[in-house]
Design goal:
With 166 residues, this protein is mainly alpha-helical. The chain has helices spanning 8-20, 24-37, 42-49, 53-65, 71-75, 91-98, 115-125, 132-141, 160-163.
Length: 166
């Protein structure tokens, strides 16, 4: 079992951090460290914070390993590489050049561009495989707005009595 003994400055910094942080992850880790220093078991801390006991062990171990940094870097998540954003910035100019044209000019059987249609266009013409969500995000970044046409053909106009002579 990893034992945690906080120094007086560390304890003070953690207490100050609890008051001023807006990050819930940092707050939970700070509470876990303070409660562990007060003698609560890792099992009790895990129950109170609704995490696994192993998570509390990992937080304490990470806090020990990063002993030379400031309190925020000792509590924060490590940088993770993750999957790189592949479509960001690449599809924006391609969508911008085609969005004002008619999709029928490109051989599609539609009168307006939609996200799935743009996704198909990017795959067919530019050989880019992107998700529909990437296309929607690009449309939002470009601040493109469109409305669906309103179908008011069956509704009578407000002046229909006058038109009929009434």
């Amino acid at each position: 079992m990893t034992e945690l003994i906080l120094s007086a400055p560390e304890r003070t910094l953690l207490q100050d951090l609890i008051v001023r942080t807006s990050d819930a992850r940092i707050l939970r880790r700070a509470y876990a460290l303070l409660w562990s220093d007060e003698g609560e078991s890792f099992h009790e801390i895990a129950d109170q914070l609704k995490v696994s006991r192993q998570t509390v062990y990992n937080w304490v171990e990470r806090f020990h390993e990063r002993g030379d940094g400031d309190i925020m870097t000792r509590l924060a998540d490590a940088q993770r590489s993750g999957r790189p954003k592949t479509a960001l910035g690449i599809i924006d100019p391609l969508i911008e050049t085609v969005i004002d044209s008619d999709p029928r000019e490109q051989g599609y059987r539609a009168t307006v561009w939609t996200a799935p249609l743009l996704m198909s266009y990017l795959a067919n013409v530019h050989h880019l495989t992107v998700s529909c969500q990437s296309v929607r995000l690009a449309i939002a970044r470009l601040r493109i707005r469109w409305k669906r046409p309103r179908h008011t053909l069956a509704l009578r106009p407000a002046t229909w009595h006058q038109a009929k002579g009434g």
